[in-house]
Design brief:
Layout lengths: L1 H22 L13 E2 L12 E3 L12 E9 L6 E9 L4 E8 L4 E8 L2 E9 L9 E8 L4 E5 L2 E5 L9 E6 L14 E9 L5 E5 L9 E3 L6 E5 L2 E2 L8 E9 L9 E5 L4 E5 L3 E6 L4 E6 L13 E4 L4 E4 L8 E4 L4 E2 L14 E5 L4 E5 L2 E2 L2 E2 L2 E6 L7 E4 L7 E2 L2 E4 L4 E9 L10 E10 L5 E6 L8 E2 L4 E3 L4 E7 L5 E10 L8 E2 L4 E4 L6 E7 L3 E11 L2 E10 L5 H4 L9 H29 L29 E3 L5 E3 L12 H17 L3 E2 H8 L5 H20 L4 E6 L2 E6 L4 E2 H15 L4 H11 L11 H22 L2 H4 L2 H14 L4 H13 L3 H19 L7 H6 L2
Parallel strand pairs: 46-51
Antiparallel strand pairs: 1-12, 1-16, 2-11, 2-15, 3-8, 3-12, 4-5, 4-11, 5-6, 6-7, 8-9, 9-10, 12-13, 14-15, 17-45, 18-19, 19-20, 20-21, 22-23, 23-24, 24-25, 26-27, 27-30, 28-29, 30-31, 32-34, 33-34, 34-35, 35-36, 37-39, 38-39, 39-40, 40-41, 40-42, 43-44, 44-45, 46-47, 48-50, 49-50
Length: about 850
């Protein structure tokens, strides 16, 4: 009852939270998004500097005490002096100034009364007041004075305010009649909060969401603040910033196109020319020029250069030649002399498999033909190109996007091509997603959709976020010259695929082989797009753009809200309405639970006592069922097979939680989860991945039935209600019952045999930790079945003995006891020929696996009968 009570309370709190979110959508900014307001300072003229007015409509009445807090970040510029804020009484008798002077690591808090200074408090600390780090500022106003806190340091100052009932809050530049200023420091602000005398928050400006007029609303009462000339940091998740533009004379390429590659780990873009290699560094926006002392890359119409992070080399390739030309940054040499190549794989996709260090290509166009070739070659010079056509699965194409999903799979999205591969036979755009296993070269379609709008195709690479279940790629219209690039997101696991624009546009002139676009993710923080286009004949332009990751759509950034609506009133009524609806459904649910009788097998994963009367009969139903024997399958409450909703990571995570819950009863720790699934990540990233994936699992499991992922005493475990069936758990129940009671219940034995005959545990899942469970399960099942088979009452039931033997051989096809049982049972049943066939097959399997013959003969087995 306590757990149910806590659950109801938690759900009530959740409903209230949802209501608040509904009233002011998307106001909670997650920690992995940048937000805040950056102030333009002395680098622009006075009219362009930033102002923030928290009280544009009316001054604030704050009683006899209140608190103000916010985060501030300083940046380095030539002039760093300026007013962060001025708090002004309506009668202008008092004004509190906060002045920042980053050059001297100094903060000043100055209280003015009329034309005189009441007090001036200095904070000078070169270890605390530093650039490019968020600093917490808090001011507590009381009748006795003002307590000022800068991070952990505090000071007190007197004040001359008569009261706090008529105050204006102006940040940065302002045009107040008496206390105006244009001295703006180079700072950024976020999380401005006001607390009343009871310590309750009454205003909260995150400085994140805003409208196009420069207004932002506080998250408590939707009171607006007005910004002029500000830079909204969250906009960098949507607006591309041009970082660099480079021009090249096409004659210097010694080929038709500029050769490009990128280093997503080191943040470098490589531009390969005949006599030099240019390197653009995204960190400092500088370009290095490296000479070419010897050799050449392959020059052709396609981009045929890729960077190898494992060897720190540029790799130039041509599928017409077995040798690769490698550029050594130390010697400035290409490994082979090169020749002119007309590449037949224009606009193909390429990557280097980090597991095998193999170069992998897909698709492309040349000689009026599209292809769907999977092309692979080791980076050792002697390896030959391995070419496998996938056109039986995926239509030949080019202009598609490719990315790495996990160590064994890549995803290929969209493109332009034709079913036959011939350019003259109805080429078209494709809007589909394929998953390709790069180990066994198998291919499967994930989804496809019909595009009713303008035709578009994709950048060469895409970014795959398996945690968020999304992928990102640049898209553009390929049926025109003047077009635009937009970053679009797509859900990976979805039944309703569609594109969503999550960036503003980049101008792009598409001229097939003379144009090129690609993108990469740098340090999980910044997306970089580089675009090559020929705006003037004979002159190629390379533009580099950046976007803060993860991207956001304009709808997620710009709030369009009627500022006159009374937020608090409808939030209250909305909360009451939702709570009433919630309690109505709770009452209905409890009433139905009391009347209903479930037919499923009870599954309480916590450690229980197993009595014979608790063991249910086997059930073949596929409603609210989780099946692990014979293969992993999950069915929802309507009987739909939802196994496909589990991505490879989600499936393994679910199985890890479930198997640990069934076996030990207490589940597993967060640390063990992170060490098992995200061992190669930082602790913060691993914890974030764990939280996101568990949240996804919970959403899927809600459709199955009473299945919950619970965290108790720092342990994660699966808790299932009586309406959910799990075949593996049923078998474990019987195994425990036999262990505790040494049962001779014939019905229980028959039930166990029927359940165990469903198959081995997770035959298609092979990881080290799953193999341990599979091995233990097989051992326990075999031991119990063998012990059952020697019982007197079972030894007379040849039909049951045959099932027992088949189950044991299913787990271990070389088990000697099982083949003896099977042959004797068949022989005694009069099926002597079948008994001999079974024994001969057993001997063949035994010899094939163990390279020897059994130490007993068929006659030995029959003589035992």
């Amino acid at each position: 009852m306590k757990q149910k009570r806590y659950l109801l309370i938690s759900l009530l709190i959740f409903c209230l939270f949802v209501t608040l979110q509904w009233g002011y959508a998307n106001t909670t900014i997650l920690s992995n998004y940048r937000y805040g307001l950056t102030f333009k300072a002395h680098t622009v003229n006075q009219d362009q500097r930033t102002s923030l007015d928290l009280t544009p409509d009316r001054s604030l009445h704050l009683g006899n005490k209140f608190s103000l807090s916010f985060d501030i970040k300083l940046r380095e510029e030539l002039h760093t002096y300026g007013y962060v804020f001025r708090i002004i009484s309506d009668d202008t008798s008092s004004c509190l100034d906060f002045i920042s002077y980053q050059l001297r690591s100094k903060f000043n808090f100055i209280l003015n009364k009329g034309s005189s200074i009441v007090e001036n408090v200095d904070f000078i600390d070169s270890t605390q007041i530093v650039k490019d780090e968020w600093i917490k500022i808090r001011l507590d106003f009381t009748e006795q004075g003002i307590k000022i806190s800068v991070n952990e340091a505090t000071q007190m100052m007197r004040h001359s305010f008569k009261d706090f009932n008529s105050l204006s809050f102006l940040f940065g530049s302002n045009r107040h009649p008496k206390y105006y200023t244009t001295d703006v420091p180079p700072v950024s602000l976020r999380n401005i909060e006001l607390y009343n005398q009871d310590g309750r928050i009454i205003r909260c400006w995150k400085l994140a969401l805003h409208n196009r007029k420069g207004e932002t609303m506080d998250e408590v009462e939707a009171q607006r603040a007005i910004v002029q000339n500000g830079i909204w940091e969250i906009d960098r998740h949507y607006n591309w910033q041009k970082e660099k533009s480079l021009k090249f004379d096409s004659k210097k390429f010694q080929c038709q196109n500029l050769q490009l590659a990128y280093d997503s780990i080191g943040g470098r873009i490589f531009m390969v020319l005949k006599e030099k290699v240019l390197v653009y560094h995204v960190d400092n926006k500088q370009v290095d020029t490296l000479s070419v002392e010897k050799g050449e890359p392959y020059f052709g119409v396609s981009r045929q250069v890729i960077y190898s992070a494992a060897t720190d080399e540029l790799i130039s390739y041509s599928t017409e030649h077995p040798l690769l030309s490698k550029y050594n940054f130390a010697t400035h040499e290409w490994s082979i002399p090169s020749t002119w190549e007309v590449d037949s794989r224009q606009h193909h996709n390429r990557m280097i498999d980090p597991e095998t260090n193999h170069l992998i290509l897909f698709g492309g166009y040349g000689r009026h033909t599209y292809n769907a070739d999977f092309v692979e070659k080791g980076l050792n010079d002697g390896d030959q190109w391995q070419i496998i056509s996938l056109d039986s699965c995926i239509t030949p194409r080019y202009l598609s996007a490719m990315g790495i999903e996990d160590k064994d799979h890549i995803l290929i999205m969209g493109g332009y091509g034709s079913r036959s591969g011939k350019q003259e036979e109805s080429p078209q755009n494709y809007y589909d997603l394929y998953r390709l296993n790069i180990r066994n070269k198998s291919c499967s379609k994930v989804w496809s959709f019909f595009n009713e709008g303008e035709h578009f195709t994709f950048s060469n690479s895409m970014i795959i976020d398996t945690v968020a279940d999304k992928l990102y790629a640049l898209v553009y219209n390929n049926d025109r010259f003047h077009t635009n690039l937009n970053l679009c997101s797509f859900d990976i696991c979805t039944s309703n695929p569609q594109s969503k624009i999550v960036s503003d546009s980049i101008e792009y002139d598409f001229l097939d082989i003379k144009s090129y676009c690609d993108l990469f993710l740098y340090q999980d923080q910044m997306l970089y797009a580089f675009v090559v286009q020929e705006k003037i004949p004979g002159e190629a332009v390379l533009d580099v753009y950046s976007l803060v990751y993860p991207p956001l759509s304009s709808d997620e950034i710009y709030m369009e809200k009627n500022k006159d609506c009374h937020f608090s009133t409808w939030v209250i009524y909305g909360s009451i309405l939702i709570c009433l609806v919630f309690f109505f459904f709770v009452i209905v649910y409890v009433y139905k639970k009391k009347k209903s009788k479930t037919t499923g097998v009870s599954m309480t994963i916590s450690k229980v006592e197993y009595g014979e009367q608790e063991i249910a009969k086997p059930s073949n139903r596929k409603i609210s069922a989780i099946l692990l024997l014979g293969g992993f399958q999950v069915f929802d409450k309507q009987g739909n097979n939802i196994t496909g909703e589990f991505t490879p990571t989600l499936k393994l995570l679910f199985l890890f939680l479930l198997l640990n819950s069934i076996k030990g009863g207490k589940g597993t720790t967060s640390q063990r989860l992170e060490e098992t699934f995200w061992f190669d990540m930082s602790k913060t990233s691993a914890a974030n991945n764990r939280r996101v994936n568990i949240r996804k699992l919970r959403l899927i499991l809600e459709t199955v039935g009473e299945v919950q992922i619970v965290n108790k005493n720092d342990y994660w475990y699966i808790d299932m209600g009586k309406d959910t069936l799990c075949d593996y758990h049923q078998v474990c129940q019987i195994l425990n019952a036999f262990e505790f009671y040494n049962s001779s219940n014939k019905e229980m034995i028959v039930n166990f045999v029927e359940l165990a005959s469903l198959g081995v545990l997770l035959p298609n899942v092979s990881t080290e930790w799953v193999d341990e469970y599979k091995s233990e399960y097989s051992h326990n099942v075999i031991e119990l079945l063998l012990s059952i088979s020697v019982r007197e009452e079972i030894g007379k039931d040849n039909k049951l003995l045959l099932k027992i033997a088949d189950i044991i051989l299913m787990h271990d096809c070389t088990d000697e006891d099982a083949i003896r049982i099977k042959c004797r049972a068949l022989f005694l049943s009069g099926q002597k020929g079948l008994a001999k066939q079974c024994f001969d097959k057993y001997c063949a399997d035994y010899n094939r696996l163990l390279n020897t013959s059994p130490e007993f003969t068929y006659d030995d087995v029959i003589c035992e009968s």
